[in-house]
Design a protein that fits this description.
The protein is of the alpha/beta class and about 260 residues long. It has helices spanning about 15-30, 45-55, 80-85, 95-100, 105-115, 130-135, 140-150, 180-195, 215-220, 240-255, and strands spanning about 5-10, 35-40, 60, 90, 120-125, 160-165, 205-210, 230. It starts with a strand and ends with a helix. It binds 2-phosphoglycolic acid (PGA).
């Protein structure tokens, strides 16, 4: 499986800024076969960036979607709208959506259902808060988030679904999880997913997210069970983002 480098821009970059960033990445990353690069800009830039990605091996992700297909939901965006822009992925269950916007596990589950039904791939984020880690609750929290998110959904497999382990205490803080913590969490998630989905769960890529940067990306991609990254801050900076893609690519070349 190709390693995955997804950039979650969050609420950053205007359309012009986003377009020139993506053009620059396209110019700089010449080895386009070795990593799967996913740009997740704000909704406002999806249309313009989709046009740049026609015939390119880069992919497009949205940062959210509503679970209903259409209707009176002021301010929301539907999966059909994203589909019409050739969006490949949708980030769901990000801790910022869960904590700041109060999205429950059940709500995340409904969104996953809608996204999968339309043939688009969810990137489901799960992760524990610092107090949960400190009180030994990490495994329980991850298990609960997975159960709530996947409850009653069928047809999930490694070709249509991505997971991202994002410990909340590592997001945007500069406190990256250690390689041991990451390896341990990814192994637990892999076994939980195996228990829930059987063979179908085996090949679901598990990304790591939380203060990934040029200094830690090389060792993190070497860590057992890490299939790629979901990157916030460092995905906004052209030097960092391209360097991380190169580090991930070097890792595959070394085998
Ligand atoms: P960060 O964000 O890389 O800035 O920590 C990661 C994320 O929120 O997906």
């Amino acid at each position: 499986m190709k390693p995955i480098v997804a950039g979650n821009w969050k609420m950053n970059k205007t359309v012009d800024e986003g377009v020139s960033f993506v053009n620059e990445v396209k110019n700089r990353i010449l080895d386009k076969d070795s990593a799967e690069v996913i740009f997740c800009p704000p909704f406002t830039s999806l249309f313009s960036i989709a046009n740049l990605l026609d015939n390119s091996p880069f992919y497009l992700g949205a940062q959210n979607v509503h679970h209903e297909i259409q209707g009176a939901y002021t301010g929301e965006v539907s999966i059909q709208m994203l589909k019409s822009l050739s969006v490949d992925y949708v980030i769901l269950g990000h801790s910022e959506r869960r904590t700041i916007f109060g999205e429950s596990g059940e709500f995340v589950r409904d969104k996953i259902n809608t996204v999968l039904n339309q043939g688009i791939k969810p990137i489901l984020c799960i992760g524990e808060a610092l107090d949960e880690r400190r009180s030994g609750q990490t495994e329980k929290v991850l298990q609960k988030q997975l159960e709530q998110s996947l409850n009653g959904i069928s047809g999930i497999n490694g070709d249509n679904f991505l997971l991202a382990y994002e410990p909340i205490w590592a997001i945007g803080t500069g406190n990256t999880a250690t390689e041991v913590q990451v390896a341990e969490a990814h192994a637990k998630i892999r076994s939980m997913v195996g228990n829930m989905l059987g063979k179908n769960g085996q090949n679901i890529p598990i990304l790591y997210g939380g203060s990934v940067n040029v200094d830690n990306a090389g060792s993190l991609i070497d860590t057992n069970g890490v299939d790629g990254f979901l990157i916030g801050g460092a995905s906004l900076d052209i030097e960092s983002f391209c360097k991380i893609i190169e580090l991930v690519t070097d890792n595959i070349k070394r085998g």
